[in-house]
Structure formats: C-alpha cells, structure tokens
Fold Flagellar hook-associated protein 1.
Amino acid sequence: MSTFSSLNAATTALWAQRRALDVTGQNIANVNTEGYSRQRVDLQAIGGSAVPAFYSTSPGIGAGVSADDVQRIRDAFLEGRGHTEHANGARLLVEAEALEQVQTAFREPGDTGIQSLLTEMWDGWEDVANQPDTDAARAQVIQRMETLVGGIQFSNASLEAQWDQTRDNLNVLVKDVNAAAETVAELNKAIRVATQAGLPANDLSDKRDVLIMKLADQVGATVRPGQYGTLDVVVGGMALVSGSSASRLAVAGPTDPDLITATDKPRIVTESGGYPVAASGTGGGQLSALNTIIPGYRKQLDDLANKLAGTLNTQQALGWDRYGNQGTPLLSGTTAATLSVVVTDPKAIAASSVGTVPPAAPEPSLDGGNADVMSQLRQDPLGTDADYRKMIVELGVQAAVAIRNQDIQAVISTQVDAARESVAGVNLDEEMTNMLSFQHAYSAASRMITAIDQTLDTLINRTGLVGR
C-alpha cells in the first residue's frame, strides 16, 4: 500500500464521517416531525484487491470506508402490528361512541326518560281510579299518554338522526380513503423511480407510511411489500393500492334505516364491480353502528311501542267509560314512529270495571276498578316496564363493556406505538453520542492526513541530496 493510497483512505474517512454528521443533523432537525424515521449511514469497509496480479501483490489492508447508503430505520413487524392495533382501536372507539349516543337518545336515568314518563302515566291511571267521577283526572291521563308517546317518538327520531349522521360520515370517510389511496399510489411510483435510479427515497417512504397508518385507522388497511421499495395496500383481502395504481371504494346499500333488510345493508364495496370489502377501523365501526347497534335498539323500541299499545288497548276494552260504553282503543300504531293517542274525550276513558248500575234507570258505573287494574300493569313482570328496564340495563352493560374494551385496546395501541417509536423515533441522547463519535472520527482522519503529509515532506525534502 503506497503512501498516496493512504491519503485516499483518509479522504474516504473524512467524507464518510462528514456524511454521517449530516445524517445526524437531519435526524436532530426532524425530532418532532410526524412520521419521520431516523436514518443511519451504512458504513462499509473498502477491502483490498482480491484479484492476483503478475507483478504486484495487495497487502490486504483495504482502501478506506464507503458511506454510499443511508438506511431508514423501521421494523416491518412492528409497523404491521401497529396497523392492526390502530384499526381495532378505531373500530372499538366508534362502537363505544355509538352506544353512548344511543344512551343519550333514551335519556336514562332522568326526569325526561321513558321510564319516568311511564311512571307518570301509571300514576295518572291511579288518580283516575281514586277519582273516577271527575273528568280532570281522566284528562290528565290522556295528556300523560301523549307525553309518553312524544317521548318514545323523540327517542326514535334521535336514533334515526344518529343513523343518518353515521351514514353521511361513512360517505365522507370513503372519499377520504380514495384520496389517500391515490396519493399512496403516486408515492409508490416516485419511490420506484428513485430506487431504480439509485436516489434516496427515505422521505417519500415516511410520507407514505403516515398515509398508510391513516388508512389503517380508517378502514383497517394492511400492507405487503412490492418491487423497488413499493408497498401494496390491502383492505379486507381486496387490493386498494397495487404498485402505482389505486382502486376506489364506494358505499352501497339503503340510505334509509327503515329500508334495511337481511340481504341489503349499508356496506363498503369496490367502485368497479361492486365487490364487498370487509373493512375494519373507523369504517368497520360505522358499519357496525349502521347495521347492528342502531337498528337493534330501534327494533326494541318498536316492540316496546307495539306492546304498550296492545297492553293499554286490551285493558281499556275490558272496562266501561262514563257513557256506559265498553272501552275503545287508546293508542294506534305498531311502531315507535307511528304510535299515537287516539282518544281525546276524557269521558271515553274506560275506568269502570262494570257497565251500568241497575235496576231501573241504568247509569254508568263510577267504581274505577278498571283504572286500578290499569295502574297495576306497571308491576307485570312480563309487561312494558319490565321489558324497557331490561333493555336499558342491557344497553348500559353493552356500553360499559365497549368502553372497557376500547380502554384496553388504547393501552395496547400505546404500547405498540411506543415500541415503534423506540425503533424509528429520534433519540436526542443517541444522536448526540453519534455526533461526538463521528466528530472524533473526522478529527482522527484529519490528523492522519497531517501525519501522512509530514511523512511525505520528510521523504521528499529531507532524504538524500540532489544535484551533487
């Protein structure tokens, strides 16, 4: 190895350490940049010649250091785990929020809740039983039935509005997903071109990873590696992004909750072909709310309204009103939306358990027996009140479980994110250590050049005499 080759080795050392310092500075500058992955210079020794020659041999010392490659520090396994956990967390969060809104629709516990309105109505029937000879108590029970019906209809309208809002949110989400997928496809194209040309693409990869994590939150996207640094994005087994081309998603199914059937429900499909996509994440949670949570409680509310109408009308038919006639229906409708009070005349309330008082001139009975039986229906273990209380308890339990699961998932996601950050994030202490190491290495390389220069000066200017 000649003296001048030593100068070349020292020169490569200077260049490599300077580049390492540049990369360290880049890491420190982006310590707070979202999605930035720390970078590291890949230092490789330049070995000696391994090819034999006729008139020369290599000492095998080497020719310095190469620093051509700058690696982006990422753990593919942790990134995949992050996509899965973020998708699960987003889905559970939406489901928990949907259940909380359902609870708000029923306003329980509270003075305006359906349970309170039921209690006031039964109390009204008890007042009629105590005062069957006055129209005031009968008018009051009609008003309380109207208030109860209004409360049931308000809860139904709140659930319907929640369904409509969730449906609109799903449409906006899918549009956002399509835009993000197109951007990922463009970044894939740029990364492939840069990789083929031997140019750095680390910053482009960081931007792409941020978008992919967003897609994981939205629809549960996962990735699979492609050629030349590209990534294919998969949602529910369907390729959303393949290389530099992106597919588009759409929302199919009814836009009215009353039109949902077992075979036609809101769903996410491919825009081309209409193939169903099993989405997770926020989209999966919204579909769960649209197809299961909200329709399920609307169905129970409809059953409650139908049972209430049947119960009151059946008992009303067993009594007699102040005209001496058998009771006519109090309520009409079989669903929460169609439920209404049809009796308006206080005298038409069938409070009596007998029709007339004999013997000679029959007169309407005012015993109030049927009203008393009506007021006791609140205690029926299979009645409307029992069914409603059971539904509210189940709703509370389901909401509590959903919130607990979401809290557990949030802890898991936080742990996974911490593990990802420990690999890809910038640690200022580590970067400062690296900076000092590269700085000392640069100084040593500089000192080596000075030593070689002094050696050459001695050999050239101080060895032997010339011109004698």
